[in-house]
Structure of Alcohol dehydrogenase:
Amino acid sequence: MRAFVLKSYAHPSQISLTTDYPEPRPGPQDVLVDVYSGGLNFFDILQCQGKYQNQPPMPFVLGTEFAGRISANSPIPKGCKLKPGDRVFGAGQGAFAEKLTAPWTSVLPIPDNISYDEAAGLFVTWPTSYEALVGRAQLKPGEWVLVTASAGGVGIAAVQLAKALGAKVIAAAGSQEKLDVSKRYGGADFGIDYTKPGWQQEVLKITGGKGVDVIYDPVGLIKDSLKCIAWKGRALVVGFAAGTIEKLPLNLVLLKNISIVGIHWGAYTKNDRDRVPEVWQELIALLSSGRVKPVVYSEVFPLEKLPDGLVAIEKRQTWGKAIVRIRQDDSVKARL
Ligand SMILES: NC(=O)c1ccc[n+]([C@@H]2O[C@H](COP(=O)([O-])OP(=O)(O)OC[C@H]3O[C@@H](n4cnc5c(N)ncnc54)[C@H](OP(=O)(O)O)[C@@H]3O)[C@@H](O)[C@H]2O)c1
């Protein structure tokens, strides 16, 4: 099969497609999946270079997020309700290949109104943003939310979800193009270029001097954003895309009467297992209703162009989810 196999660590621009790699063999709790689309993540770039917290032994196939069909010859482990031919999305090592194995507990059916390209970027970003806003920040209708990196993978999901939950959203991003994306595909009410000094004053002006009730920050801009947080506001620590782990003077937390709240979605399967199906049930209902819709970057990369996609993420050029397409979606007509 065709796959991006790593035999030594390399920068993503240096990797190439292997055309004759053996199909993976499922373990006792795994299903085998024909991969149609793979979702690109910043951590793929790190894993490629041996810099990620989770490094499989060599050789390994790159990629984690995927969408596809349960293979005709897949085993179906006890308790798994999926069957061969089902359209699914999920996470498992080796997504940038024609086939992968994944634990059946990390594989979910794709709602009928969602394509493979859209589903390939769902598994990590959407539950992160949903649980951050609902479970952690306890967002209420009518509240103000500021989303930083609002056109990025988790950011655009947060913008859409906050709107669907009845909030007023201020999108903050690094270019006019990304602010336009945040409004067009996310439904953001306002857009702010956070590369401009004093951008927090704009946020205060928009909110009539009150500030935002919730800050959703995957960049590492909590300290800067606290200049425009409201009394009793909640600041969500989602990630550090800018590359630096922030330090915060705690007097700000006291003086502004605010909460700093963390979200680590990946740890829920270990620490809060019961919450995972609840989040997915609520999210799938929202996705199926069409009230929220995954956003795919305008250039969908064919599998062999994966390096271009990863380099585009590294250069901060992409918005929404960057996707590689591995097979054509033969089910589109059937679903129309
Ligand atoms: N807590 C969790 O459970 C969880 C789950 C998923 C992801 N995350 C984290 O969330 C962060 C964002 O993930 P994502 O999938 O949304 O990534 P993404 O799609 O690549 O978006 C990241 C955005 O961050 C902004 N950014 C600001 N400074 C940057 C820099 N120096 N280098 C690169 N980007 C920079 C860029 O937007 P602008 O150009 O608009 O500035 C970029 O588009 C990552 O750190 C990731 O690890 C956390």
Q: What stands out?
A: The pocket of NAP is lined by residues 41-42, 124-125, 128, 149, 151-155, 173-174, 178, 218-219, 238-243, 263-266, 313, 316 (CB under 6 Å). The CA atoms of residues 64 and 93 lie 5 Å apart. Residues 5-122+294-335 form a domain with the Quinone Oxidoreductase; Chain A, domain 1 fold (CATH 3.90.180.10). The first helix runs from residue 42 to 48.
